Amino acid sequence: MLRAIIPAAGEGRRLKPHTHTTPKVLLQVAGKPIIGHIMDRLIDVKPDEVMVVVGVQGEQIQHYLTSKYKFNFKFVEQKDPKGLGDAVSRVSGLLSNEDKKSPVLILLGDTIVDINIKEIISKENIVGTKAVEDPRRFGVVETKNGYITKITEKPLEPKSNQAIVGIYYFTSAGPLFDSLDKIIKEDRKTRGEYQLSDALQEMVDKDIKIKTLPVEYWLDCGTPEAMIATNRYLLQTNSHFTPREKVVIIPPVYIDDSVSIEESVIGPFVSISEDAEIRNSIIRDSIINQRAYVENSLMQGSILSENAVVRQRATKVNLGAFSEMEMG
């Protein structure tokens, strides 16, 4: 029996004002929420259960997932987040000792890893990694013969450029949860939080083998700039639009069929969600969410949350839900 765990309780502080009203994992890129792209990649794996850890506004995540996907979901609350290790440990109480003998797959709810997830299902413990320019922002692994020897969370002086990218597979869940229980009982925190990387190091110290899997495409959604870049990448294989009169569309774009557009130029790399309205505007490299309204604007590198309104010649906008910007 395969279980998938998706930590999705992140507050998304760097994505405010958009996360004031919408959980980070429900922010849209390339025509659907971030977590939707993750769920799409799970379909071929067919996990027996999908356990989702949610926080504040978690009911929005639960409604979206249960209405769009047919997985056997279980939801766990983490309204007082204390780190990724804490988030994963929250599902432990739902599992029997027998359950913990089964494999577990962990995918972060706010990070899209563009691989065939079947590649990570194996007879060995696996952690996805990628070489990065600045490893100080991430959990970093040192390896020998492809197996992890040392894991350091956000090191000031990294000894490796191999960052953990947010996808994990364990042939048996028990050793992972035993290690999480130990670091939490010992109140062993790094940077004030219980880190999953510390639990992995605990496993390595017990001579449990964990292999690395290089991941080529790791799509971060942690900042507005990263979301725009992720939107740009995903649109290359997720383009959708219907031609409209007096509207120039430059692919790749994702334009929901319910969107109303008049006398505008859209694209490339634009995502427009349900019931948005665009009038007399030029929009490039941007994300326009549900029911947003744009008129008489030149917009590039922008994100508009749901129900946001822009009526001016802006060039770059980062506008939260129900906000208005208008030139007098």
Strand order, main sheet: write it out: 5-4-1-6-11-8-12
Summed over residues and divided by their number, the pLDDT gives a mean of 88
Strand proportion? 25-35%
Instruction: Tell me the major beta sheet.
Output: 7 strands, mixed
End-to-end separation in angstroms reads 61 Å
Q: Helicity range of the residues?
A: 10-25%
Whole-number total of structural domains? 2
Secondary structural class: alpha/beta
Q: How many distinct beta strands?
A: 27
At the fourth CATH level, what is the homologous superfamily of the largest domain? Spore Coat Polysaccharide Biosynthesis Protein SpsA, Chain A
Radius of gyration: 21 Å
| CATH-level-2 architecture of the largest domain | Alpha-Beta Complex
Q: According to CATH, what is the topology of the largest domain?
A: Spore Coat Polysaccharide Biosynthesis Protein SpsA, Chain A
Low-pLDDT sequence parts: none
| Broad shape | elongated
Tally of separate helices: 6
CATH class identity of the largest domain: Alpha Beta
Description:
The protein has helices at 34-42, 58-68, 84-89, 173-185, 196-205, 224-235; strands at residues 3-7, 28-29, 32-33, 49-54, 73-77, 104-107, 111-113, 125-131, 139-144, 147-153, 162-170, 210-214, 218-220, 247-249, 253-255, 260-262, 264-266, 270-272, 277-279, 282-284, 286-288, 293-295, 298-300, 303-304, 309-311, 318-319, 324-326. With 328 residues, it is of the alpha/beta class. The protein has a seven-stranded mixed beta sheet with strand order 5-4-1-6-11-8-12. Strand 9 and strand 10 form a beta hairpin. The N and C termini lie far apart (61 Å). The model has no long low-confidence stretch (mean pLDDT 88).
